Each structure stands twice: as structure tokens, then as C-alpha cells.
């Protein structure tokens, strides 16, 4: 526990004080806590002491040099400032409420929610979660509970934005994307090469995690979720063998999908627990430090940029070239994987009287507009919107509560590369060229669904395989959710009291289970669940 003149904060972290990890400090300057992965310039080993002392000299600029995936809490005697700050991309959530009369904040949404005397459902928040799998912006499922925006800080009476995450694309003459990315990747990996204890990596057969394995010598264990005969597992095992690392594949049994407390808690009621693929196997991850490649595709390979497409046998196939005039809402709908038919079926089975298509489009348009001032172009604004609402972040949140967890993509130098590189150069080709400058053998084993250098050729071959008898298709990287849902009788076990939703897709049923489970974990009176009743039995005006 740390107590300053303005705030009190506590931390539970068995690795507090480990190099590159959480740190706390109290001195004449005040008190400071940094939770998560943090690196500072020079030889100072305590990031909290460095930040407090630097803040006394440089003010808010001190946060520009703090590197990593963190939340920083500062109560500075010298200036009278007290605040909680996110890293530039909000890779760790901070929730807050003013309901008790004094501003309360923390990283566990349910714990902060318990301080709210009469919580009310946020209609828009719940609808966004059910139809998109993520609550957009700063909302939560509860009206009185908010979260810090991307690149911001919370003070006792306000929320203030920083300018650490603002797009500033450079010309090729001033900034070579491949050279810069290769150099910054090597620096970021060096920073993360001395994290404590036994080291492992969550390994896919794709591109992103293998660059970590190629440069962190301490990693001697790798893990993949999937059956032994799956293409993804076979590919990951080949990559692990290439770098002399043991490999363990966890079978996709009921632990993969089951949204129990070990997963739902980390969904925070704002994002799907489905993304925490490893949660059911946590006790078998025999490491102290865990590495992963989360968001490398987003920051380095243009996951949220809009591509031109061509029609191949009535299917739109991306060409790998940027769309010169994208429709922001259409592009976001494509990226988030919105299903119009499934959402209509869901709307018919819950008590919300809305047209889901209109609602989702309006919500995405509003969120895109809210991010527009950080980007000069539509393509960069799309990336900013995607990063600010990244649905897979519970993956990292869960890991960080169990291990010292390295987050390569959140390195400040790499974030700056993303902001300085034009969207046309944030591509898989740029990323792979940079990686091969670091390790010229990194593509010895290609991902099973990407046998060609060309994005278009990979897409076309995948389509042809799916449509041609006697040709095997590329397998998806993750296990079949529908088959697992049926095999382990989750309709009865998870939703036995809600037979009217059993015909929905498994992903939508998991969202219902996530939200209900998260609300029940802190609202014992079940005041927040009327939307789950069938429409014919629902109150006419659920939200009062």
C-alpha cells in the first residue's frame, strides 16, 4: 500500500521489484507505483523512483520516456499533482467511478463496480458487447463505471488526454520502414531478454511469435492450443524445433471454451473471454515469464487498414493494396467480424427493441469520429480506432496476472514506428523483410495457410481449396467452437435456463455467458440481468 496526500493505492504482485516489471517507491518527492512491464532510460532499476524523480523535473514529459505495458500512479508532493496514467495504447485498463463520492479507481472492473450503490445497465455498452464482442470507447456494461481512454490520465477531478499516440507519417527519404523496424525490433527484444525465471512463449505457426523465439535465448518452452494433428500445431512444433525449444500442445477440450471464473473475470464485462485461449491450461504453463506476439499484426502489418479487393468466384479477396477511398464503417464491420444474420437472431431473443444493423453502424461511426483527431488520414484513423478497441486484450490481462508478461508490440520505439510509418508500408512484406534482416532463416517453415509471398495468391489458393473437391482446405488456426460447444453440452451446462438462445452461434452464446457471469460475480441481487429474458416476458422498458 502507498499513501500520498491525495491518493491511496495498493498492488498485489508477487514479482514486484523484478527488473523490467512492477515497481513501487515512496520518498521525499511523494509516492509512485508502476504496474506491469516498464523500462526507463539509464541504469535505474526502479521504474517508479525514476518516474517520480523525473516528473518533478519534466512534468508530463516524463511519461514519454517510460516504456512498456503499464499503468503508472503518481502522487507528487512537489507539484501537488496526483494521477493515474495509461501507456500510449492503453494495454492495461483502468476503471473508475465517482459514485461513492470519492473517485475510486483500479484494474478490476468488478471490484470497482462493488463500490456503486445502485448500478444500472448501460444499454449501449451491453448491446455493443453482444453484437461486436467489445464495448467501444470508454463505456462499460454499467453506466456508473467508466474506463480511462487510450493515451490519457485520470486526476481527482478530470480525465486528460496525452499526445503520445498521434500519427505523423514520414517520407521514405526521411524514414526507411524496413531498416527502422529491424533496428527497433532488435532493441525491444534486447530490453526483454533478461526477464526473471524460466521463460516460455505462446507459439503459433504464424509470423508474430517466431521473431521472439529467434532472439530470446532464455526461452526453452513453447505452448500451443490445438490437437496434435492440426496444421497450426504441426507448424508451431516445426518452428520450436528450429530454435531448439520444447513444445507442448494442449488438446482443445472443454477447458478451451469453458468461460469459468478464470476467464470471465478478465473479460471485465467489456471484451470476450474467448480470446484468452490459454486460460484453462494455466496451471500447466510451467514458466515464470511468458512472451507472446499479440498485436504484432495490428502494429506492424496493417490489420485494421482497409485493402482493395477483387471478386474471385463471387468472393471478395483482398489484394494487399490499400483502398484509396475506404468507407470507415464498412471497413470496421469487415475487421471486427460482425454477422448481420447472427445479430438479428440475437435481437429476436433478447429484450432490446433495436435494429442491430443500424445500431452497430451508428456505434462504429461514433467511435471512428472520436479517434479522428489522432490521425490525418482515414486509413490511420481506422488503425487508431482498432487499437483503441482491441478485442483480444484480455489475453494479455490474464497472462499478466499469472506471469511476468512481455508485450513486444507495446514497446515505445515500436509504437513510434507504427505512428511514423505510412499505412502503405505497414504490411506483412515490410515486417518480414525486417525480420529476415534480424534472422535470415526465420521463414524456413512457412505458416500453413500462407505458402506464398503474395497476399492475393494466398487468399486465392485458400478459396480454391475450399471450393474444390478432393483438395484439403487450409485449417483455421483455432479449434472449432461450434463442435466443442456441442460436444461438451454447453447449451445445458451454461444456458440451461435460457433455451430460447440455444440456436444462436456459439460465439454469441459465449458472449451472453461472459456478460451474465461477470455481472453476477459482483451484483448478487441480479439487478442487472433483465435483458436475458425472452422478449415476450421482458419488461416493456428495461432501462427505466
TrEMBL record:
Residues 180-250 form the Asparagine synthetase domain. One of its GO terms (molecular function) is asparagine synthase (glutamine-hydrolyzing) activity. GO terms for biological process: asparagine biosynthetic process. Gene3D superfamilies: Glutamine Phosphoribosylpyrophosphate, subunit 1, domain 1 (3.60.20.10), HUPs (3.40.50.620). This is Asparagine synthetase domain-containing protein.
Amino acid at each position: 500500500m502507498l499513501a500520498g496526500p491525495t491518493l491511496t493505492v495498493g498492488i498485489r504482485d508477487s514479482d514486484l521489484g523484478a527488473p523490467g516489471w512492477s515497481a513501487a517507491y515512496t520518498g521525499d518527492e511523494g509516492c509512485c507505483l508502476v504496474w506491469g512491464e516498464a523500462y526507463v532510460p539509464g541504469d535505474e532499476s526502479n521504474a517508479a523512483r525514476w518516474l517520480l524523480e523525473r516528473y518533478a523535473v519534466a512534468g508530463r514529459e516524463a511519461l514519454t520516456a517510460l516504456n512498456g505495458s503499464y499503468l503508472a500512479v503518481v502522487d507528487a508532493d512537489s507539484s501537488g499533482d496526483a494521477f493515474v496514467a495509461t501507456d500510449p495504447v492503453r494495454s492495461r485498463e483502468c476503471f473508475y467511478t465517482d459514485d461513492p463520492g470519492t473517485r475510486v479507481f483500479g484494474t478490476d472492473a468488478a471490484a470497482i463496480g462493488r463500490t456503486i450503490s445502485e448500478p444500472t445497465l448501460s444499454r449501449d455498452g451491453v448491446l455493443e458487447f453482444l453484437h461486436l464482442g467489445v464495448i467501444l470507447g470508454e463505456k462499460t456494461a454499467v453506466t456508473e463505471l467508466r474506463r480511462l481512454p487510450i493515451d490519457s490520465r485520470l486526476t481527482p477531478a478530470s480525465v486528460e488526454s496525452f499526445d503520445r499516440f498521434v500519427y505523423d507519417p514520414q517520407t521514405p527519404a526521411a524514414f526507411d520502414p524496413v531498416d527502422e523496424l529491424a533496428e527497433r525490433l532488435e532493441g525491444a527484444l534486447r530490453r526483454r531478454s533478461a526477464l526473471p525465471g524460466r521463460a516460455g512463449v505462446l507459439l503459433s505457426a504464424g509470423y508474430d511469435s517466431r521473431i521472439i523465439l529467434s532472439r530470446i535465448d532464455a526461452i526453452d518452452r513453447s505452448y500451443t492450443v490445438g490437437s496434435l494433428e492440426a496444421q497450426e500445431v504441426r507448424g508451431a512444433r516445426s518452428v520450436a524445433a528450429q530454435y531448439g525449444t520444447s513444445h507442448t500442445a494442449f488438446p482443445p477440450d472443454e477447458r478451451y471454451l469453458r468461460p469459468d471464473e478464470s476467464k470471465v473475470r478478465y473479460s471485465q464485462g467489456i471484451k470476450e473471454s474467448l480470446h484468452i485461449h490459454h486460460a484453462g491450461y494455466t496451471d500447466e504453463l510451467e514458466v515464470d515469464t511468458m512472451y507472446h506476439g499479440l498485436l504484432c499484426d495490428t502494429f506492424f502489418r496493417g490489420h485494421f487498414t482497409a485493402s482493395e479487393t477483387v471478386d474471385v468466384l463471387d468472393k471478395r479477396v483482398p489484394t494487399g493494396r490499400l483502398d484509396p477511398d475506404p468507407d470507415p464503417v464498412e471497413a470496421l464491420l469487415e475487421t471486427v467480424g460482425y454477422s448481420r444474420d447472427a445479430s438479428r437472431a440475437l435481437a429476436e431473443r433478447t429484450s432490446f427493441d433495436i435494429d442491430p444493423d443500424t445500431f452497430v453502424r451508428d456505434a462504429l461511426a461514433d467511435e471512428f469520429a472520436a479517434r479522428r483527431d489522432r490521425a490525418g488520414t482515414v486509413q490511420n484513423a481506422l488503425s487508431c480506432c482498432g487499437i483503441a478497441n482491441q478485442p483480444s486484450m484480455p489475453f494479455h490481462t490474464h497472462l499478466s496476472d499469472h506471469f511476468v508478461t512481455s508485450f513486444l508490440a507495446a514497446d515505445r520505439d515500436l509504437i513510434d514506428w507504427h505512428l511514423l510509418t505510412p499505412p502503405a508500408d505497414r504490411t506483412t512484406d515490410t515486417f518480414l523483410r525486417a525480420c529476415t534482416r534480424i534472422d535470415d532463416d526465420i521463414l524456413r517453415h512457412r505458416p500453413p495457410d500462407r505458402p506464398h509471398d503474395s497476399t492475393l495468391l494466398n487468399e486465392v489458393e485458400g478459396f480454391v481449396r475450399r471450393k474444390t473437391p478432393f483438395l484439403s482446405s487450409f485449417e483455421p488456426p483455432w479449434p472449432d467452437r461450434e463442435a466443442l460447444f456441442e460436444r461438451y453440452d454447453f447449451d445445458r451446462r451454461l444456458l440451461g435456463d435460457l433455451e430460447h438462445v440455444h440456436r444462436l452461434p456459439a460465439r454469441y452464446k459465449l458472449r451472453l455467458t461472459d456478460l451474465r457471469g461477470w455481472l453476477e460475480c459482483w451484483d448478487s441481487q441480479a439487478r442487472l440481468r433483465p435483458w436475458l429474458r425472452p422478449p415476450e416476458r421482458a419488461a416493456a422498458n428495461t432501462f427505466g
